[in-house]
Amino acid sequence: MRKRGRKASIEENTPRAPKSSKRASNAKKDATKPNAKQNRRVTTNAATDDEESEEEQPPYVPPVKDISQEIYTLSKMVIVGVIPIVSDTDFLKLDEFNFREFVTMNIRKADEYAKKGGFEFDTGPSTATLSAKGVRVMDNIVISVEDSSSWKKVEQGIKRWMLAGKKEIVVKLNVVYPKASLSHSEESEEDGPPRKKVSTLFYLLI
Q1: Closest Cα partner for 75 from 87, 86, 89, 85?
Q2: Domain span at residue 86?
């Protein structure tokens, strides 16, 4: 007869691997590793945040140069006939020059000069020529100045060059009053009609 008790004792002493260890490791991996849907959601949110941050940034605006203390040179020349009655230079900021006062003073001086010389004068052309360091002569700005509004164009030209960083800006303002004289035949007629003025314009190259 065989002894069945011995076989049972062998099976009881044989060690068995726990069945739950594999399931625990797989559960742990699933807990630490996000699924594809979660990855897609996180990536989408990050991209949206980056786009919003880029859109919220204001556009770059370069700072405007402060020219309130910039100085330019104003060279004034007033001529009656061929004789200069005003020759002066000022160092000014923008909006400091009063063109109307300048013209009023010129007419007063021209009138005094004309009375001493025994002649009359007419209103002539006024031009302003803008030049600066590094600017070619052919690129100088020439503006016809007739009144205060015309002088504002000169100020705009000065302002543009200051903002552009031009150095040693010079404005040459030339005013010419043509000399009005009487013809010889009209001077000899004592009882004739009122004398007629003949305007003679002298050109001065500066």
Answers
A1: 89
A2: 72-182+195-200
